[in-house]
Amino acid sequence: MKKRGIFSGIILIGFGLYFLLERFSLFSSFHTWPTLLLIIGIAFLGQAYIGKDYHAILSGVVFTGTGVHFHLASRLSSWPDDISSLTFIVAIGLFMQYVKTKQALLPTILLFALSVIFLFSQPLQQAFTSVTFDSLIHIWPFAFILLGLYLLFVKKG
């Protein structure tokens, strides 16, 4: 049975704490928009796990992960600050949702693989500076397009 009001309750408590701490100038380094994303994400995750509304897992992980990402990117110079880390967050969310719903395994695996490739593409490119690797870099988008067309039009079910 899905419990109603969990999302609203958590988000109201979270925003109330955020503005209260802001008023008293406590934890001023967390008075940023990524913290608001964290609060929204935690509310979605609460709705997902406490309220057994498992389709809110993806939203919760994306909001929470994006908030954590931007907090860490502003504090750690070694943190990857590009789109690949955000696609990795979405892949984690899809995987967590798959664990509960047993739906969308193929997109989860594909996005996870793409995210890992994107995260490590620069080091791979530096390690394999050859004509073959350089030519593969230019044609891989076509492979994605062909795979997408196959999934849309050829593979049914």
The percentage helix is over 70%
Can you write the helix and strand succession as a string? HHHHHHH
Kindly give the count of domains: 2
**Distance linking N and C termini:** 29 Å
How many alpha or pi helices?
7
Q: What is the approximate shape?
A: flat
Low-confidence stretches: none
**What integer value in Å does the Rg equal?**
20 Å
How confident is the prediction overall: mean pLDDT? 84
Class of secondary structure makeup: mainly alpha
Query: Main β-sheet: number of strands, strand sense, barrel status?
Result: none
Q: What's the total count of β strands? A: 0
The percent range for strand residues is under 5%
Name the descriptors.
flat, 157 residues, 7 helices, mainly alpha
Short note summarizing the structure:
This protein is mainly alpha-helical and 157 residues long. It has helices at residues 6-23, 33-49, 57-75, 83-101, 105-119, 121-127, 131-154. The chain folds into two domains: 6-119, no CATH class; 123-157, no CATH class.
Topology readout:
Elements: H1 6-23, H2 33-49, H3 57-75, H4 83-101, H5 105-119, H6 121-127, H7 131-154
Helix pairs in contact: 1-2, 2-3, 3-4, 4-5
Structure notes:
Helix content is 76%, strand content 0%. It is mainly alpha-helical and 157 residues long. It folds into two domains: 6-119, no CATH class; 123-157, no CATH class. Helix 1 (6-23) packs antiparallel against helix 2, helix 3 (57-75) runs antiparallel to helix 4 (83-101) and helix 4 runs antiparallel to helix 5. The longest helix is centred in the last third of the chain and has 24 residues, at 131-154. The relative contact order is 0.08.
